[in-house]
Amino acid sequence: MMKKSNWGALLSAAFLMAISAIGPGFLTQTALFTSQLGASFGFIILASIIVDIVAQMNIWRIVAVSGTPAQDIANKLLPGLGYGLATMVALGGMAFNIGNLAGAGLGLQVLFGMDVTHGAICSAVIAIGIFLYKEASRAMDFFVKILGVMMIFLMLYIAFKSNPPLLEAAARTISPKQFSFTALVTIIGGTVGGYITFAGAHRLLDKGIRGVENLPTVDRGAISAIGIASVMRILLFIAALGVVSAGYLIDPANPPASVFRWAGGEVGYKIFGLVMWAAAITSVIGSAYTSITFIKSFHIRIQAHDRFVTVGFILVSCLLYGFIGNPVQTLVVVGAINGFILPLALAVMLIAAHQTTIVGSYRQPFWLTTSGTIIALIMTYMGVQTLFELLT
User: Fold this and answer.
1) Which of 125, 214, 259, 356 lies 20 to 30 Å from 269, alpha-carbon distance?
2) What pLDDT score was predicted for residue 267?
3) What total of structural domains would you count in the chain?
4) CATH code at position 117
5) pTM score, two decimals?
Protein backbone atom coordinates (compact mmCIF):
# COMPACT_ATOMS: atom_id res chain seq x y z
CA MET A 1 0.00 0.00 0.00
CA MET A 2 1.28 3.46 -0.90
CA LYS A 3 2.22 5.78 1.96
CA LYS A 4 -0.10 8.74 2.57
CA SER A 5 2.80 11.14 1.99
CA ASN A 6 3.50 9.47 -1.36
CA TRP A 7 -0.15 9.90 -2.39
CA GLY A 8 0.14 13.61 -1.71
CA ALA A 9 3.35 13.86 -3.72
CA LEU A 10 1.81 11.85 -6.56
CA LEU A 11 -1.25 14.10 -6.77
CA SER A 12 0.89 17.24 -6.61
CA ALA A 13 3.09 16.05 -9.48
CA ALA A 14 0.17 14.75 -11.55
CA PHE A 15 -1.87 17.94 -11.24
CA LEU A 16 1.11 20.21 -11.90
CA MET A 17 1.94 18.35 -15.11
CA ALA A 18 -1.71 18.21 -16.21
CA ILE A 19 -2.49 21.88 -15.58
CA SER A 20 0.77 22.82 -17.30
CA ALA A 21 -0.60 21.07 -20.38
CA ILE A 22 -4.10 22.57 -20.11
CA GLY A 23 -3.38 26.09 -21.30
CA PRO A 24 -4.91 28.44 -23.89
CA GLY A 25 -3.26 26.49 -26.72
CA PHE A 26 -4.66 23.21 -25.41
CA LEU A 27 -8.21 24.61 -25.46
CA THR A 28 -7.81 26.17 -28.90
CA GLN A 29 -6.22 23.14 -30.56
CA THR A 30 -8.84 20.72 -29.23
CA ALA A 31 -11.79 22.83 -30.38
CA LEU A 32 -10.20 23.59 -33.77
CA PHE A 33 -9.28 19.99 -34.62
CA THR A 34 -12.74 18.80 -33.59
CA SER A 35 -14.29 21.28 -36.02
CA GLN A 36 -11.99 19.96 -38.77
CA LEU A 37 -12.13 16.21 -38.12
CA GLY A 38 -15.43 15.78 -36.34
CA ALA A 39 -15.92 12.53 -34.40
CA SER A 40 -12.75 11.07 -35.95
CA PHE A 41 -10.72 13.36 -33.71
CA GLY A 42 -11.53 10.86 -30.96
CA PHE A 43 -9.10 8.42 -32.60
CA ILE A 44 -6.39 11.10 -32.58
CA ILE A 45 -6.97 11.65 -28.87
CA LEU A 46 -6.79 7.92 -28.14
CA ALA A 47 -3.54 7.53 -30.11
CA SER A 48 -2.02 10.58 -28.43
CA ILE A 49 -2.85 9.25 -24.96
CA ILE A 50 -0.90 6.06 -25.69
CA VAL A 51 2.08 8.03 -27.03
CA ASP A 52 1.95 10.50 -24.14
CA ILE A 53 2.01 7.72 -21.53
CA VAL A 54 5.00 6.01 -23.17
CA ALA A 55 6.99 9.26 -23.46
CA GLN A 56 6.13 10.37 -19.95
CA MET A 57 6.90 7.03 -18.28
CA ASN A 58 10.31 6.91 -19.96
CA ILE A 59 11.22 10.41 -18.76
CA TRP A 60 9.72 10.22 -15.26
CA ARG A 61 11.28 6.81 -14.54
CA ILE A 62 14.85 7.84 -15.40
CA VAL A 63 14.59 11.17 -13.57
CA ALA A 64 13.30 9.33 -10.49
CA VAL A 65 15.77 6.43 -10.61
CA SER A 66 18.76 8.74 -11.11
CA GLY A 67 17.43 11.12 -8.45
CA THR A 68 18.59 14.10 -10.51
CA PRO A 69 16.80 16.62 -12.77
CA ALA A 70 16.85 16.16 -16.53
CA GLN A 71 19.53 18.79 -17.26
CA ASP A 72 21.99 17.14 -14.86
CA ILE A 73 21.37 13.77 -16.52
CA ALA A 74 22.09 15.36 -19.91
CA ASN A 75 25.30 16.95 -18.62
CA LYS A 76 26.49 13.55 -17.38
CA LEU A 77 25.99 12.09 -20.84
CA LEU A 78 27.67 14.99 -22.65
CA PRO A 79 29.11 18.00 -20.80
CA GLY A 80 27.18 21.12 -21.81
CA LEU A 81 24.20 19.24 -23.24
CA GLY A 82 22.21 19.83 -20.07
CA TYR A 83 22.85 23.56 -20.19
CA GLY A 84 21.62 23.64 -23.78
CA LEU A 85 18.49 21.68 -22.87
CA ALA A 86 17.85 23.92 -19.86
CA THR A 87 18.22 27.06 -21.99
CA MET A 88 15.77 25.73 -24.58
CA VAL A 89 13.22 24.83 -21.91
CA ALA A 90 13.55 28.15 -20.07
CA LEU A 91 13.30 30.29 -23.22
CA GLY A 92 10.42 28.21 -24.53
CA GLY A 93 8.68 28.40 -21.16
CA MET A 94 9.04 32.19 -21.07
CA ALA A 95 7.73 32.58 -24.62
CA PHE A 96 4.72 30.42 -23.87
CA ASN A 97 4.15 32.33 -20.66
CA ILE A 98 3.59 35.40 -22.81
CA GLY A 99 0.75 33.52 -24.47
CA ASN A 100 -0.48 32.20 -21.11
CA LEU A 101 -0.67 35.73 -19.70
CA ALA A 102 -2.55 36.86 -22.81
CA GLY A 103 -4.99 33.98 -22.24
CA ALA A 104 -5.42 34.95 -18.60
CA GLY A 105 -6.13 38.54 -19.65
CA LEU A 106 -8.68 37.35 -22.20
CA GLY A 107 -10.40 35.24 -19.55
CA LEU A 108 -10.77 38.23 -17.20
CA GLN A 109 -12.01 40.37 -20.08
CA VAL A 110 -14.79 37.86 -20.74
CA LEU A 111 -15.64 37.63 -17.04
CA PHE A 112 -15.44 41.28 -16.02
CA GLY A 113 -14.98 43.35 -19.18
CA MET A 114 -11.43 44.14 -18.06
CA ASP A 115 -8.81 45.32 -20.53
CA VAL A 116 -6.77 42.28 -21.67
CA THR A 117 -3.44 43.85 -20.71
CA HIS A 118 -4.72 44.83 -17.28
CA GLY A 119 -6.10 41.32 -16.85
CA ALA A 120 -2.71 39.84 -17.75
CA ILE A 121 -0.99 42.07 -15.18
CA CYS A 122 -3.51 41.14 -12.46
CA SER A 123 -3.00 37.45 -13.22
CA ALA A 124 0.78 37.86 -13.06
CA VAL A 125 0.40 39.53 -9.65
CA ILE A 126 -1.65 36.57 -8.38
CA ALA A 127 0.94 34.07 -9.65
CA ILE A 128 3.75 36.10 -8.08
CA GLY A 129 1.85 36.25 -4.78
CA ILE A 130 1.74 32.45 -4.65
CA PHE A 131 5.52 32.17 -5.01
CA LEU A 132 6.18 34.96 -2.51
CA TYR A 133 4.07 33.22 0.14
CA LYS A 134 6.30 31.60 2.76
CA GLU A 135 4.60 28.24 2.17
CA ALA A 136 4.84 28.65 -1.61
CA SER A 137 5.12 24.92 -2.31
CA ARG A 138 1.89 24.10 -0.48
CA ALA A 139 0.13 27.14 -1.93
CA MET A 140 1.06 26.12 -5.48
CA ASP A 141 -0.13 22.54 -4.94
CA PHE A 142 -3.45 23.69 -3.45
CA PHE A 143 -4.05 26.33 -6.12
CA VAL A 144 -3.46 24.04 -9.10
CA LYS A 145 -5.53 21.20 -7.62
CA ILE A 146 -8.52 23.44 -6.89
CA LEU A 147 -8.49 25.11 -10.30
CA GLY A 148 -7.84 21.80 -12.04
CA VAL A 149 -10.87 20.14 -10.45
CA MET A 150 -12.98 23.25 -11.10
CA MET A 151 -12.08 23.24 -14.81
CA ILE A 152 -13.04 19.59 -15.19
CA PHE A 153 -16.46 20.08 -13.57
CA LEU A 154 -17.20 23.21 -15.62
CA MET A 155 -16.15 21.39 -18.78
CA LEU A 156 -18.40 18.48 -17.81
CA TYR A 157 -21.35 20.89 -17.60
CA ILE A 158 -20.62 22.35 -21.05
CA ALA A 159 -20.22 18.87 -22.54
CA PHE A 160 -23.62 17.90 -21.11
CA LYS A 161 -25.27 21.07 -22.43
CA SER A 162 -23.95 20.52 -25.96
CA ASN A 163 -25.83 17.20 -26.27
CA PRO A 164 -22.99 15.40 -28.09
CA PRO A 165 -23.49 12.29 -30.26
CA LEU A 166 -21.67 9.94 -27.89
CA LEU A 167 -22.29 6.77 -29.89
CA GLU A 168 -20.80 8.31 -33.02
CA ALA A 169 -17.84 9.63 -31.02
CA ALA A 170 -17.21 6.15 -29.59
CA ALA A 171 -17.50 4.49 -33.01
CA ARG A 172 -15.15 6.93 -34.76
CA THR A 173 -12.63 6.68 -31.91
CA ILE A 174 -12.20 3.04 -32.91
CA SER A 175 -12.85 3.40 -36.66
CA PRO A 176 -12.06 6.95 -37.86
CA LYS A 177 -13.16 8.33 -41.21
CA GLN A 178 -10.43 10.96 -41.23
CA PHE A 179 -6.88 11.14 -39.92
CA SER A 180 -4.45 14.04 -39.52
CA PHE A 181 -0.83 13.37 -38.65
CA THR A 182 -0.39 17.09 -37.98
CA ALA A 183 -3.22 17.03 -35.45
CA LEU A 184 -1.67 14.02 -33.72
CA VAL A 185 1.79 15.56 -33.42
CA THR A 186 0.35 18.92 -32.36
CA ILE A 187 -1.66 17.58 -29.45
CA ILE A 188 1.19 15.27 -28.37
CA GLY A 189 3.42 18.34 -28.24
CA GLY A 190 0.70 20.22 -26.39
CA THR A 191 0.49 17.51 -23.72
CA VAL A 192 4.07 16.33 -23.17
CA GLY A 193 6.13 18.72 -25.30
CA GLY A 194 8.54 21.40 -24.14
CA TYR A 195 8.74 21.84 -20.38
CA ILE A 196 5.39 20.14 -19.66
CA THR A 197 6.38 16.52 -19.04
CA PHE A 198 9.19 17.63 -16.73
CA ALA A 199 6.84 19.62 -14.49
CA GLY A 200 5.64 16.50 -12.70
CA ALA A 201 8.97 14.64 -12.81
CA HIS A 202 10.85 17.50 -11.17
CA ARG A 203 8.01 18.00 -8.69
CA LEU A 204 8.41 14.38 -7.56
CA LEU A 205 12.10 15.06 -6.94
CA ASP A 206 11.23 18.10 -4.85
CA LYS A 207 8.86 15.90 -2.85
CA GLY A 208 11.63 13.35 -2.22
CA ILE A 209 10.16 10.64 -4.48
CA ARG A 210 13.20 9.00 -6.09
CA GLY A 211 14.91 5.65 -6.41
CA VAL A 212 13.89 2.26 -7.84
CA GLU A 213 11.78 1.49 -4.77
CA ASN A 214 9.45 4.38 -5.66
CA LEU A 215 8.87 3.38 -9.30
CA PRO A 216 5.27 2.20 -8.66
CA THR A 217 4.49 5.70 -7.36
CA VAL A 218 6.28 7.27 -10.33
CA ASP A 219 4.31 5.15 -12.81
CA ARG A 220 1.00 5.99 -11.14
CA GLY A 221 1.89 9.67 -11.18
CA ALA A 222 2.87 9.64 -14.86
CA ILE A 223 -0.31 7.83 -15.91
CA SER A 224 -2.53 9.91 -13.60
CA ALA A 225 -1.15 13.15 -15.01
CA ILE A 226 -1.91 12.10 -18.58
CA GLY A 227 -5.33 10.90 -17.38
CA ILE A 228 -6.24 14.28 -15.86
CA ALA A 229 -5.19 16.20 -18.96
CA SER A 230 -6.95 13.66 -21.20
CA VAL A 231 -10.24 13.91 -19.28
CA MET A 232 -10.24 17.65 -19.94
CA ARG A 233 -9.44 17.12 -23.63
CA ILE A 234 -12.12 14.45 -24.05
CA LEU A 235 -14.78 16.63 -22.40
CA LEU A 236 -13.89 19.60 -24.62
CA PHE A 237 -13.86 17.29 -27.65
CA ILE A 238 -17.37 15.94 -27.06
CA ALA A 239 -18.65 19.45 -26.23
CA ALA A 240 -17.24 20.76 -29.51
CA LEU A 241 -18.59 17.71 -31.35
CA GLY A 242 -22.06 18.43 -30.00
CA VAL A 243 -21.84 21.99 -31.30
CA VAL A 244 -20.54 20.92 -34.73
CA SER A 245 -23.13 18.12 -35.03
CA ALA A 246 -25.90 20.62 -34.33
CA GLY A 247 -24.81 22.61 -37.38
CA TYR A 248 -23.19 25.55 -35.63
CA LEU A 249 -20.03 27.09 -37.03
CA ILE A 250 -16.96 27.35 -34.79
CA ASP A 251 -15.18 30.68 -35.11
CA PRO A 252 -11.56 29.93 -36.19
CA ALA A 253 -10.44 33.15 -34.49
CA ASN A 254 -11.48 31.79 -31.08
CA PRO A 255 -12.65 28.16 -31.36
CA PRO A 256 -13.13 27.35 -27.65
CA ALA A 257 -15.18 30.51 -27.02
CA SER A 258 -17.52 29.45 -29.84
CA VAL A 259 -17.97 26.01 -28.30
CA PHE A 260 -18.84 27.38 -24.86
CA ARG A 261 -21.17 30.06 -26.24
CA TRP A 262 -23.09 27.79 -28.61
CA ALA A 263 -23.42 25.11 -25.94
CA GLY A 264 -24.29 27.26 -22.95
CA GLY A 265 -25.36 30.65 -24.25
CA GLU A 266 -24.13 33.69 -22.33
CA VAL A 267 -23.67 31.60 -19.20
CA GLY A 268 -21.50 29.26 -21.24
CA TYR A 269 -19.49 32.22 -22.52
CA LYS A 270 -18.83 33.37 -18.95
CA ILE A 271 -17.79 29.81 -18.07
CA PHE A 272 -15.37 29.99 -21.00
CA GLY A 273 -13.85 33.10 -19.44
CA LEU A 274 -13.38 31.32 -16.12
CA VAL A 275 -11.95 28.17 -17.70
CA MET A 276 -9.64 30.20 -19.94
CA TRP A 277 -8.35 32.20 -16.98
CA ALA A 278 -7.87 29.09 -14.82
CA ALA A 279 -6.10 27.22 -17.63
CA ALA A 280 -3.86 30.19 -18.37
CA ILE A 281 -2.82 31.15 -14.84
CA THR A 282 -2.11 27.56 -13.81
CA SER A 283 0.03 27.21 -16.93
CA VAL A 284 1.88 30.40 -15.94
CA ILE A 285 2.65 28.80 -12.57
CA GLY A 286 3.62 25.44 -14.07
CA SER A 287 5.82 26.98 -16.73
CA ALA A 288 7.61 29.30 -14.29
CA TYR A 289 8.19 26.57 -11.71
CA THR A 290 9.49 24.02 -14.23
CA SER A 291 11.69 26.48 -16.13
CA ILE A 292 13.44 27.47 -12.91
CA THR A 293 14.00 23.81 -11.94
CA PHE A 294 16.01 23.58 -15.16
CA ILE A 295 18.23 26.61 -14.58
CA LYS A 296 18.95 25.85 -10.91
CA SER A 297 22.04 24.02 -12.11
CA PHE A 298 23.47 27.22 -13.61
CA HIS A 299 24.51 28.71 -10.26
CA ILE A 300 24.21 27.86 -6.58
CA ARG A 301 22.55 31.22 -5.87
CA ILE A 302 19.69 30.40 -8.22
CA GLN A 303 19.08 27.23 -6.23
CA ALA A 304 19.28 29.11 -2.93
CA HIS A 305 16.81 31.81 -4.04
CA ASP A 306 14.64 29.84 -6.45
CA ARG A 307 11.35 31.41 -5.27
CA PHE A 308 12.55 34.92 -6.07
CA VAL A 309 14.06 33.81 -9.37
CA THR A 310 10.65 32.33 -10.24
CA VAL A 311 9.02 35.67 -9.41
CA GLY A 312 11.52 37.39 -11.69
CA PHE A 313 10.72 34.91 -14.45
CA ILE A 314 7.02 35.81 -14.27
CA LEU A 315 7.80 39.56 -14.13
CA VAL A 316 9.98 39.37 -17.25
CA SER A 317 7.27 37.36 -19.04
CA CYS A 318 4.74 40.06 -18.14
CA LEU A 319 7.02 42.87 -19.32
CA LEU A 320 7.67 41.08 -22.60
CA TYR A 321 3.94 40.62 -23.09
CA GLY A 322 3.53 44.38 -22.63
CA PHE A 323 6.16 45.08 -25.31
CA ILE A 324 5.12 42.40 -27.78
CA GLY A 325 1.36 42.85 -27.39
CA ASN A 326 0.25 40.12 -29.78
CA PRO A 327 2.29 37.02 -28.90
CA VAL A 328 1.01 34.83 -31.73
CA GLN A 329 4.05 35.04 -34.03
CA THR A 330 6.43 34.56 -31.12
CA LEU A 331 4.52 31.46 -30.09
CA VAL A 332 4.64 30.05 -33.62
CA VAL A 333 8.42 30.42 -33.92
CA VAL A 334 9.19 29.20 -30.41
CA GLY A 335 6.63 26.43 -30.84
CA ALA A 336 8.71 25.03 -33.67
CA ILE A 337 11.86 25.15 -31.54
CA ASN A 338 9.92 23.68 -28.63
CA GLY A 339 9.02 20.75 -30.86
CA PHE A 340 12.63 19.57 -30.61
CA ILE A 341 12.66 19.50 -26.80
CA LEU A 342 10.55 16.33 -26.41
CA PRO A 343 12.56 14.14 -28.84
CA LEU A 344 15.85 15.55 -27.52
CA ALA A 345 14.92 15.00 -23.89
CA LEU A 346 13.42 11.59 -24.65
CA ALA A 347 16.57 10.55 -26.54
CA VAL A 348 18.71 11.68 -23.58
CA MET A 349 16.59 9.62 -21.17
CA LEU A 350 16.66 6.55 -23.42
CA ILE A 351 20.46 6.66 -23.57
CA ALA A 352 20.75 7.43 -19.85
CA ALA A 353 18.55 4.41 -19.07
CA HIS A 354 21.44 2.18 -20.12
CA GLN A 355 24.25 4.05 -18.31
CA THR A 356 25.12 2.36 -15.01
CA THR A 357 26.83 5.57 -13.83
CA ILE A 358 23.40 7.23 -13.94
CA VAL A 359 20.84 4.52 -13.12
CA GLY A 360 23.00 1.92 -11.38
CA SER A 361 21.67 -1.62 -11.75
CA TYR A 362 18.23 -0.49 -12.95
CA ARG A 363 17.09 -1.81 -16.33
CA GLN A 364 14.45 0.02 -18.34
CA PRO A 365 11.76 -2.35 -19.75
CA PHE A 366 12.43 -3.26 -23.38
CA TRP A 367 8.95 -2.20 -24.51
CA LEU A 368 9.44 1.29 -23.05
CA THR A 369 12.82 1.70 -24.73
CA THR A 370 11.57 0.48 -28.11
CA SER A 371 8.35 2.49 -28.17
CA GLY A 372 10.15 5.55 -26.78
CA THR A 373 12.73 5.37 -29.58
CA ILE A 374 10.02 5.22 -32.25
CA ILE A 375 8.27 8.23 -30.72
CA ALA A 376 11.53 10.22 -30.53
CA LEU A 377 12.25 9.56 -34.22
CA ILE A 378 8.75 10.52 -35.34
CA MET A 379 8.73 13.71 -33.27
CA THR A 380 12.18 14.67 -34.59
CA TYR A 381 10.98 14.25 -38.18
CA MET A 382 7.89 16.36 -37.57
CA GLY A 383 9.92 19.01 -35.74
CA VAL A 384 12.27 19.33 -38.72
CA GLN A 385 9.31 19.53 -41.11
CA THR A 386 7.63 22.27 -39.06
CA LEU A 387 10.82 24.33 -38.74
CA PHE A 388 11.48 23.94 -42.48
CA GLU A 389 7.99 25.25 -43.28
CA LEU A 390 8.59 28.31 -41.08
CA LEU A 391 11.97 29.08 -42.65
CA THR A 392 10.67 28.75 -46.20
Assistant:
1) 125
2) 95
3) 1
4) 1.20.1740.10
5) 0.92
